């Protein structure tokens, strides 16, 4: 099993969610985060003073999935999240040792 | 009761309530501008001012400022005597102008309250609440009460002696508070990380709500100062409205040109700048003159708030940039725009000589210098004895937690939130160490609080 983590622009959440659902993924976790990549920050002037804005709001999407589906899901997320402009985000995959469904106690693939 | 004009009295009583509303309004205005971890402390300083100044006013404040209105005497035009201390004599007091003197005393009380509360804006995020209360008590007693006498007392040396015009408090309230704010900002010093670390308002809707309440209450502040429900009050009200409107546009105009975008913070601040500037002049100028005052105040104050970065003083909420500068603008412009039919003399623009202008400047300088010097002295003494500023740790973690053991916004669903208290994982280590030394007395132990 694998954990697919995607940090994307906030307004790309709907397309990503739709794309992932279309592949039959049963669930996902979404959190509001802040971050920057190579785009770093920019300066703005407010109330007569210059401020450096480093972090930008992003959304983190996490999906636990079977190894066989990982590539399809990663591709779907990347395609849905892409706007072509700087700050689109990143997707990465990490291994998962165990998954348990809380309600029934099912483990492994049955828990997905 | 014979001699009572119910219309005048009703208006004064109403104005009193409206002006009192300005202090909670100020709490919202200031509170929204601070960091979220300091919002409660900021509002608490305002509420604390309401508490102490109200009591002082009854005990001796009214007497020092206005003993003459209650049948007492002035001591050389510098301050009143204590014949009206405790306000006991006022129960059978007269009705000067058809208004019971007790109503007049109440009206002036809420002026004393808001003036004191205004100063708190300069020390946001870093002042000990106990020290603030001490400062409020001493400064109100030694500065506001006498200065009110200087400007508005029947024999006050500025108002009566020199002829300084200040209808509702541009000098007595705003220049006064602004100068004290500057002194305190310098005594307490810059916030940690300022100006490098950005401090933006954490809750702009609160700022705008506060500005709206201030704007509303200010009609009581300005038009109520007519002490009558009459044409003068009407003039004051109209001028207040148009000056403020002009100031909003003036401020955001500056932002638009300088920075490319108008901001809500600018609009709210512009409104306050206009209200401050028109305060001394509201019954002495014509509406077009009021618009001019508002525009000048809006523009100048918008530019003035950048000064603190240039001169490196942390006037956290721009009390200096708005109240001191705005108060000076309005008080001085009386000398230019006063209209004879209202003020009894003519400003420079209407063919009057520079005399009035000179007197206005003198009044401003006298109050500013005295207030600044005394605030500096009081603030320094407090700082050297009990300490005025919170510890660096307290400031970084948040003054709300350390001064009040409270959190302004508890939106987390993760149990009772004490932001800044030791996390459960770290709590055992603190208990083992046995000292809990970075937690000041009065902050609940997270081990006992957490659910």
Q: If you had to describe this structure to a student in words, what would you say it looks like?
A:
The complex is a heterodimer of chains A (112) and B (451). Chain A is an alpha+beta fold. In chain A, 20% of the residues lie in helices and 37% in strands. Chain A contains two helices and six strands. In chain A, helix 1 runs antiparallel to helix 2. The longest helix of chain A has 12 residues, at 70-81. The radius of gyration of chain A is 17 Å and the shape is elongated. The termini of chain A are close together. Chain B folds into two domains: 6-385, Ammonium transporter fold (Orthogonal Bundle), CATH 1.10.3430; 392-449, no CATH class. Chain B contains 18 helices and two strands. A two-stranded antiparallel sheet of chain B has the order 1-2. In chain B, helix 7 (204-223) packs parallel to helix 9 (264-281). Chain B is globular. The chains are: A alpha+beta (112), B mainly alpha (451). At the A-B interface, strand 4 of A face loops of B.
User: Could you say what the CATH architecture of the largest domain in chain B is?
Assistant: Orthogonal Bundle
Quaternary state of this entry equals heterodimer
| Shape summary of chain A | elongated
Distance between the termini of chain A: 9 Å
Average pLDDT for all residues of chain B:
91
CATH classification, class level of the largest domain in chain B: Mainly Alpha
What is the CATH homologous superfamily assignment of the largest domain in chain B? Ammonium transporter AmtB like domains
SS strand fraction of chain B: under 5%
Widest sheet: strand ordering of chain A: 2-5-1-6
Largest sheet of chain A: 4 strands, antiparallel
Care to count the β-strands of chain B?
2
What is the domain total for the residues of chain A? 1
Largest interface: A-B, 7 and 11 residues
Structural class category of chain B: mainly alpha
What is the number of beta strands of chain A? Answer: 6
Topology readout:
The complex is a heterodimer of chains A (112) and B (451).
Chain A: E1 2-8, H1 13-22, E2 29-35, E3 42-46, E4 49-53, E5 56-65, H2 70-81, E6 89-95
Antiparallel strand pairs in A: 1-5, 1-6, 2-5, 3-4
Helix pairs in contact in A: 1-2
Chain B: H1 6-33, H2 39-66, E1 74-75, E2 79-80, H3 101-119, H4 129-152, H5 157-162, H6 170-188, H7 204-223, H8 231-259, H9 264-281, H10 287-304, H11 307-311, H12 319-337, H13 340-343, H14 355-385, H15 392-397, H16 399-404, H17 427-433, H18 446-449
Antiparallel strand pairs in B: 1-2
Helix pairs in contact in B: 1-2, 1-3, 1-7, 2-3, 2-4, 3-4, 3-6, 4-6, 4-14, 6-12, 6-14, 7-8, 7-9, 8-9, 8-10, 9-10, 9-12, 10-12, 12-14
């Amino acid at each position: 099993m694998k954990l697919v983590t995607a940090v994307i622009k906030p307004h790309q959440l709907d397309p990503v969610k739709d794309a992932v659902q279309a592949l039959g993924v049963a669930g996902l976790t979404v959190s509001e985060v802040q971050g920057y990549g190579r785009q770093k920050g920019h300066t703005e002037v407010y109330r007569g003073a210059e401020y450096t804005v480093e972090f930008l709001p992003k959304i983190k999407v996490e999906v636990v999935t079977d190894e066989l589906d990982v590539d399809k899901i990663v591709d779907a997320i990347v395609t849905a999240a892409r706007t072509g402009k700087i700050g689109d985000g990143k997707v990465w995959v990490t291994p998962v040792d165990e998954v348990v469904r809380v309600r029934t106690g099912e483990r492994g693939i049955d828990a997905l | 009761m014979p001699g009572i004009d119910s219309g005048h009295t009703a208006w004064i009583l109403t104005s009193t309530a409206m002006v009192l509303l300005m202090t909670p309004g100020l709490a919202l205005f200031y509170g929204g501008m601070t960091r979220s971890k300091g919002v409660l402390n900021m509002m608490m300083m305002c509420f604390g001012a309401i508490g102490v100044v109200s009591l002082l006013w009854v005990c001796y404040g009214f007497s020092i400022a206005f003993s003459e209105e209650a049948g007492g005497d002035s001591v050389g035009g510098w301050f009143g005597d204590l014949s009206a201390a405790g306000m006991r004599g006022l129960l059978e007091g007269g009705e000067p102008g058809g208004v019971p003197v007790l109503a007049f005393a109440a009206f002036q009380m809420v002026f004393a309250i808001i003036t004191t509360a205004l100063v708190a804006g300069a020390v946001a995020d870093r002042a000990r609440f106990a020290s603030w209360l001490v400062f409020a008590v001493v400064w109100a007693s030694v500065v506001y009460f006498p200065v009110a006498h200087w400007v508005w007392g029947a024999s006050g040396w500025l108002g009566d002696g020199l002829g300084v015009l200040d209808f509702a408090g541009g000098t007595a309230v705003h220049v006064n508070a602004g100068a004290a704010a500057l002194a305190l900002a310098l005594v307490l010093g810059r916030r940690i990380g300022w100006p490098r670390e950005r401090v933006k308002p954490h809750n702009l809707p609160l700022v705008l709500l506060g500005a709206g309440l201030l704007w509303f209450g200010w009609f009581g502040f300005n038009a109520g100062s007519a002490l009558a429900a009459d044409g003068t009050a009407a003039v004051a009200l109209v001028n207040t409205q148009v000056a403020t409107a002009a100031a909003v546009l003036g401020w955001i105009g500056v932002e638009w040109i300088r920075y490319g975008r108008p901001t809500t913070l600018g609009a709210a601040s512009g409104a306050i700048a206009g209200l401050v500037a028109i305060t001394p002049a509201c019954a002495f100028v014509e509406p077009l003159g009021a618009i001019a005052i508002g525009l000048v105040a809006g523009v100048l104050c918008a530019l003035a708030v950048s000064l603190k970065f240039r001169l490196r003083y942390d006037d956290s909420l721009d009390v200096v940039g708005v109240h001191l500068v705005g108060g000076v603008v309005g008080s001085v412009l009386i000398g230019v725009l006063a209209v004879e039919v209202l003020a009894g003399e003519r400003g420079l623009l209407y063919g009057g000589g520079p005399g009035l202008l000179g007197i206005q400047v003198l009044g401003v300088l006298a109050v500013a210098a005295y207030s600044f010097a005394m605030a500096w002295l009081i603030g320094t003494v407090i700082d050297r004895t009990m300490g005025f500023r919170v510890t660096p740790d307290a400031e970084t973690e948040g003054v709300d937690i350390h001064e009040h053991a409270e959190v302004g916004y508890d939106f987390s669903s993760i149990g009772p939130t004490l932001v800044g208290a030791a996390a459960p994982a770290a709590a055992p280590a603190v208990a083992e160490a046995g000292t809990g030394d970075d937690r000041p007395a009065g902050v609940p132990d997270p081990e006992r609080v957490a659910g």
